Amino acid sequence: MTPVIVSIVVLVAMFVIATVLPVNLGALGFVAAALVGVLAAGMSLDDVLAEFPGDLFLILVGLTYLFAVAHHNGTVDLLVRWSMRLVRGHLVAAPWIFFTLSAVFSAIGALFAVAIVAPLAMPFARRYGVSLLLMGMMVIHGSLAGAFSPISVYGTFVAGVVGPTGIPFSSTTLFLAPLVINLVIAAVIFVVLGGRSLAGTRVQHAAPTVAGRPSAGGDGAPVATEGAGSPDRTDDDEADDEDDDEDDDEPVRVGRPQVLTLIGILALAVGTVGFNLDVGVLSLTIAVTLGILCPAGHREAAQGIAWSTVLLVCGVITYVGVLQEAGTVDVVGQGIVALGVPLLAALLLCYLGGVLSAFASSAGILGVAIPLALPFLQQGSVSAIGMVAALAVASTVVDVSPFSTNGALVLASTPADVDRDAFYRRMLIYSGVVVVLGPLLAWGLLVAPGWL
């Protein structure tokens, strides 16, 4: 068998084994990358190890470490309550608040907007009984809604690849198409995943205090006065809520650790958005600095790093890198273009970008999918403007997968008292639906009608 066929067969086998047996898919990915890379693709072991996503490793470790610190010192609890005050206790507005926040961060250039918003949104959802799947997907789709603004990383990258070729291109279409499609998807999942059941639910919230003195305007502990349950809630959750209510009778204290942590989170947002600093290194730096300045509880916080998620994501992405080195991606892409049926080729290119992106970084896949499509676009058989926008949507909308960067960040941000395996399976089901329907939706709206 050729290296291409071997790599595809091994990929399928990995998923079968991880589904049937309690073996981490990431661990399988590392083993498969070594075996396929060295034995079938002619790579050296050093070449295989070079595919390890060191930047993503640092991001996952750094962020889960930083927000574990924030959780243990009470800062996450403080931010959750402030978020509830922002929506005046109307729980139904909360998912849209986090959607908008994520979209704004993404649109102004934060490549990892999810990394900033998810660690706040997921504990919020856990505390107030909002579906964790709903909240996590709202954060991701919000980030994708703003991902292709003219000043965003994705937007400038696509413009830089397509612009010099002379192929027709519209930065406005590139921005608005993902915005509208992700907004529509968010509205659908809000309804399907129980968002409507939050209507009429109001949450009372305690006011923060400084140096032990309540500030003016406090109105009690966070208690849902009306509302329905959530798919993620169990009888144990209800018991936990009763305990939380007892703890929440006291106003939230804002002390030195919380102030310093808030400054650190602000520095993370400003550093990544305004100065393009590395998210992983910056978050680790902030976490270590907080440990030096406020060491209480820091040892326990270090145990909050989501190592199983880190192993899962890094292993799969390493194997995808071997797939690319083995030529699997190029062979599939060239075969699609050679079909000779423009609309079918366009659809298959959208699926190629979508399926690959579900297991890797969207930025990296865009760097593969769009150059692969350029010869096809130069033929003029389909609208270049619509096809570029469709590829952008198809290659990013699948970021809800727990194997992609954004999906992994949401999974890693899931509170420790939640069954992450169960939540991971729910994410897999949802991402499977998106992988099947997302590229088709992008093609059906932006390419097939020919109106762009």
Automatic annotation (TrEMBL):
Major location (coarse): membrane
Bilayer disposition of the protein: Multi-pass membrane protein
Membrane-spanning segments: 28-49, 56-74, 94-120, 132-154, 174-193, 259-275, 305-323, 343-370, 382-403, 423-448
Region (Disordered), start-end ranges: 209-252
Pfam families, A to Z: CitMHS, MatC_N
Annotated ranges, domain Citrate transporter-like: 280-441
Dicarboxylate carrier MatC N-terminal domain: residues covered: 1-147
Bias (Acidic residues): 234-250
Subcellular location: Membrane
Signal sequence coordinates: none
InterPro entries documented for this protein: Cit_transptr-like_dom (IPR004680), CitT-rel (IPR030676), MatC_N (IPR009827)
Superkingdom as given in the UniProt entry: Bacteria
Keywords tagged on the record: Membrane, Transmembrane, Transmembrane helix, Transport
Stated name of the protein: SLC13 family permease
Protein species of origin: Actinomycetospora lemnae
